[in-house]
What does this fold into?
Amino acid sequence: QSVLTQPPSASGTPGHRVTISCSGSNSNIGINTVNWYQQFPGTAPKLLIHSTDKRPAGVPDRFSGSKSGTSASLAISGLQSEDEADYYCAAWDDSLDGYVFGTGTKVTVL
Amino acid sequence: QVQLQESGPGLVKPSETLSLTCTVSGGSINSHYWNWIRQPPGKGLEWIGYISDSGTSKYNSSLQSRVTISVETSKTQFSLDLKSVTAADTAVYYCARGVSYVVGTVRFFDYWGQGALVTVS
It folds into this structure.
């Protein structure tokens, strides 16, 4: 059972902005940084955002992350067809003393 | 460029032990935390645990009684043993490199293997 809650799906038309939420608690998002992973069908997840708002080299600046309190968000601006994928938030949980993932959000480009 | 590759049996019988190995190339295993993560078909990601190059390990509390992760630095490999498996352990198993900013915790995974499907049947 995932500790971090995400909406199952999100969608938008090309060029528009999509935001995915991630709800946690004081022991994970509230106290630690948040990371986001992008996963295409049949492939391994890829690090998209780390340390809440940092993009690894090669990740387009259309992707941005933020957090407030015990919730975090991933925004995709200028949505493109190749952004259709599953997105997972994740963070270390101090109470569980382990790494936790969100439930995952499937993004569809209409 | 760091690369990780999982290897091991794709089919395991119920009640037996699932064993996988991750081979790391293009970088040293003598730093970072080395992790196993799994994903049941059509479901989300679950962290299994990690081991450091010094042999320190930490496991998901829900699996702790059945999991052992070990490291062989001379071979740049680390391994997963999951005992007493059931059909619920059927999943794609990923190995991944964990980056740590605070000792004992993982901040994020920057390199992943391609994944190995293990079916318990």
Observations:
- The mean pLDDT of chain B is 95.
- The two ends of chain B are 36 Å apart (CA to CA).
